[in-house]
Design brief:
The longest helix has 19 residues. The protein has 4 helices and 7 strands; from the N terminus they run H-H-E-E-E-H-E-H-E-E-E. The protein is α/β, with parallel strands linked by helices and about 170 residues long. The strands form 2 sheets. It has a 4-stranded mixed β-sheet with strand order 3-2-6-7. The protein has a 3-stranded parallel β-sheet with strand order 1-4-5. Helix content is about 30%, strand content about 30%.
Length: about 170
């Protein structure tokens, strides 16, 4: 799997960070091709110190990087990408890629945004427990990326706001 470069802002990484990221991206590629789960790897993941559990935001991020500054009433070319997101979702995703058994509790709508939001979690082997809402949309965050990499966010919290606080206790 080829790693995508952030079109909005280049980040310089140390050689050690590059090696770690290359290993993680290679692991993702193996998982997507079905090579990832050897019996030894499954056993290694289960022998750790228990499940890492996150609760909260499950979202689809829409990254919009306009080529020029948008002006009212005009059409502006841009790079637009839809990706899984949500702070609570990102944490167990990366924990799973690093070899820890992880899970996520949250809420989604019954919509295409939910499919995008959950896609990487399922592929990474995260245990997902979600409450699905017919009348609410999955959270969606529009990330407007400016020419120097600064971001502005437009949010639709949707089903995220339906997580009852009493499930924490």
């Amino acid at each position: 799997m080829a790693r995508e470069k952030n079109p909005a802002k280049d980040i310089t990484l140390s050689e050690d960070d590059e090696r770690i990221l290359d290993k993680i991206w290679a692991d993702i590629g193996k998982r997507k091709s079905g090579e990832e789960q050897t019996p030894e790897r499954k056993k290694d993941r289960k022998d750790r110190n228990g499940l890492i559990l996150a609760m909260g935001g499950i979202a689809t991020d829409i990254l919009v990087s306009p080529k020029t500054e948008p002006k009212p009433g005009t059409d502006v070319p841009a790079i637009i990408q839809a990706r899984p997101g949500g702070t609570a979702s990102n944490f167990p995703f990366w924990c799973s890629l690093l070899g820890h058994e992880s899970g996520l509790v949250g809420a989604i709508g019954r919509d295409a945004l939910a499919d995008i939001a959950l896609s990487d979690l399922n592929e990474a082997g995260v245990s997902v427990l979600v409450e699905s809402h017919q009348n609410l949309m999955t959270a969606c965050i529009i990330n407007l990326v400016g020419p120097s990499g600064e971001k502005s966010f437009i949010t639709q919290r949707g089903a995220d706001e339906a997580i009852p606080p009493e499930i924490i206790t």
